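> forwarded from #structure-qc
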């Protein structure tokens, strides 16, 4: 993929390790639910009197929102029953520090704005955000990328449950301060997107004031290709998947551009959705979906799509406009739709397909769409699906999409516009005094490249390992546990190689957080088990075992030197002929035998020393 085929920009949202932005509540997530209350949210107009299109789409869903307010992690500010307090000064200093690291220009005065958000993730119906600095620069592999904006904003509430017509949020996460930083649209390959995100992440961590772990940093990636449109994939949490999301989105946009050309060749034009009631046609259809809808009093509705045959789902599955339409339909509360390119299937036999084609008087190049549900829902879903079908005439519609675990994405809502912002009147402006900026500029943290060089020289690890430790965010833990050069080597290998290998083997390494790893390394440093047993110990700890439990289950309690010497002596004498023939060259082959028998009960170096000693003793006798 050349740089002319792709344009990307990144937005990074990183939680700060302070108290909440507009109150003194702690910023730890909790399991308690606390008191609950319920709200409905409606869109408001901007200062120009306009309603944001994304907010309008969300409002049309008519959702109820239930909030859990745990007393240990939320207060009246979070519930929007008390005005916000003054913005957290420590959080502001962290953003100013990060901005200074990227040579950005701070604003003269900080003004908070309200960004309309009515998906229920904020009790107020808006998110507070403020511009802190502009015009930063980020170096990525020798290229300088612009970083136009540095913002301080509040995180959203945490979604804990979703059911028909209602979403439940917990207020423990609401109000946690976030750095929001955006690059310019200057990234041109999937790997470059990942590298920019890694660089920004490592520089944020260098402040030593950001939170760590899954969910504490989220990436939004804006993607476009020539002829396409800007698409925002919002809320990517796994850095390693960033390139895959970019690649899949490029494939999707190319597919939509091919669909546009097919529709142009067929001279398809936009027309009103001709929704018809086909319930009588399907009254005896064995499809479980249709039978279920009819039993609940629903209807089967259909719409013709002249000229769309073969683009809703092509035989090679490379053109899949039907999947796009289904995602739009689901925003109206239905489980999905059927389209003619995938029929007969799902219990809908060819006879029913032929009957619908006859009813709509369709030709070979024409298609149709069906929906079985409550009549109001089904009609709204079909109109949304058909609207999306006709959007294909212009190519790629601008939209916000949700990341899916397989690297693809799904439609969420239209891209928001400027109409979502209006001034915050409850938070006073903050003048950034010269003394404050000078203090921050004179106390900047160690830059990642400086830290890399220091770790390599101090702990004797390879520079590439040091760089990866810093880039992947393991540097703090590494320095905590690397009490000796030997342990440093083991720690580096464990963090950089063992953990990925365990993940490839199916171990859920998300359970191995820093405290768990710290526990394992502490036991290792005390000699409670040998470094060769680290993978096995961590595998059991990922399943919830403690270090003592893992050691007991594996039977790897460290063997005394005398016991180990006896084992080595027996193994050497059992192979006396081989030892006399090879001399000291027998050490390597015997290492595998000895370590296999000791099974992690003895450190490899100690075992090697015992083997050498026993061989020398045998040869001298």
């Amino acid at each position: 993929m050349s740089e002319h085929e792709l344009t990307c920009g990144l937005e990074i949202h990183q939680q700060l390790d302070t108290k909440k932005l507009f109150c003194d509540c702690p910023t730890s997530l909790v399991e308690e639910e606390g008191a609950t209350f319920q709200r409905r949210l409606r869109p408001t107009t901007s200062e120009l009197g306009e309603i944001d299109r994304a907010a309008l789409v969300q409002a049309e869903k008519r959702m109820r929102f239930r909030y859990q307010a745990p007393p240990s992690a939320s207060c009246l500010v979070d519930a929007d029953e008390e005005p916000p307090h003054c913005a957290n000064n420590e959080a502001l200093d962290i953003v100013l520090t990060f901005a200074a690291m990227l040579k950005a220009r701070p604003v003269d005065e900080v003004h908070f704005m309200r960004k309309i958000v009515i998906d229920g993730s904020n009790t107020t119906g808006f998110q507070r955000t403020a511009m802190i600095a502009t015009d930063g620069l980020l170096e990525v592999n020798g290229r300088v990328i612009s970083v136009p904006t540095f913002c301080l904003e509040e995180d959203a509430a945490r979604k804990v449950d979703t059911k028909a017509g209602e979403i439940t949020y917990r207020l423990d996460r609401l109000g946690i301060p976030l750095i929001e930083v955006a690059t310019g649209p200057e990234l041109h390959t999937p790997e470059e997107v990942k590298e920019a995100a890694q660089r920004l992440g490592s520089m944020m961590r260098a402040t030593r004031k950001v939170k760590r772990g899954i969910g504490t940093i989220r990436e939004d990636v804006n993607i476009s290709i020539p002829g396409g449109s800007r698409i925002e994939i919002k809320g990517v949490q796994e850095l390693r998947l960033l390139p895959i999301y970019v690649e899949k989105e490029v494939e999707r946009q190319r597919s939509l551009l091919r669909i546009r050309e097919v529709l142009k060749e067929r001279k398809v034009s936009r027309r009103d959705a001709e929704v018809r009631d086909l319930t009588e046609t399907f009254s005896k259809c064995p499809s479980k979906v249709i039978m279920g809808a009819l039993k609940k009093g629903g209807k089967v509705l259909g719409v013709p799509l002249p000229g769309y045959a073969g683009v809703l789902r092509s035989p090679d599955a490379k053109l899949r406009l039907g999947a796009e339409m289904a995602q739009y339909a689901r925003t109206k509360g239905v489980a999905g739709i059927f389209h003619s390119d995938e029929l007969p299937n799902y219990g809908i036999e060819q006879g029913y397909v032929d009957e619908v084609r006859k009813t709509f008087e369709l030709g070979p190049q024409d298609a149709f769409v069906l929906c079985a549900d409550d009549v109001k829902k089904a009609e709204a879903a079909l109109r949304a699906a058909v609207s999306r079908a006709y959007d294909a005439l212009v190519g790629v519609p601008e939209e916000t999409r949700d990341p899916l675990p397989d690297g693809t994405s799904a439609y969420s809502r239209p891209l928001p516009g400027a109409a979502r912002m209006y001034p915050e009147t409850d938070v006073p402006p903050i003048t950034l005094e010269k003394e404050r900026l000078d203090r921050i500029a004179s106390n900047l943290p160690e830059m990642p490249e400086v830290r890399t060089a220091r770790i390599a020289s101090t702990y004797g690890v390879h520079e590439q390992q040091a760089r990866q430790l810093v880039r992947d965010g393991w540097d703090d833990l590494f320095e905590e546990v690397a009490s000796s050069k030997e342990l440093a080597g083991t720690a580096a290998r464990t963090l950089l190689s063992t953990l990925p290998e365990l993940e490839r083997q199916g171990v859920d390494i998300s359970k191995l957080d820093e405290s768990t790893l710290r526990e394992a390394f502490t036991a290792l440093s005390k000699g409670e088990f040998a470094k060769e047993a680290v993978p096995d110990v961590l595998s059991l700890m990922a399943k919830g075992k403690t270090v003592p439990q893992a050691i007991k289950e594996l039977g790897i309690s460290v063997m005394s030197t005398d016991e180990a010497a006896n084992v080595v002596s027996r193994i050497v004498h059992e192979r006396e002929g081989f030892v006399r023939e090879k001399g000291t060259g027998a050490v390597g082959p015997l290492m595998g035998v000895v370590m296999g028998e000791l099974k992690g009960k003895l450190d490899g170096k100690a075992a090697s020393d015992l083997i050498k000693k026993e061989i020398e003793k045998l040869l001298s006798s």
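QC bot note: Residues 7-23+87-155+176-263+418-422 form one domain. The longest strand covers residues 126-140.
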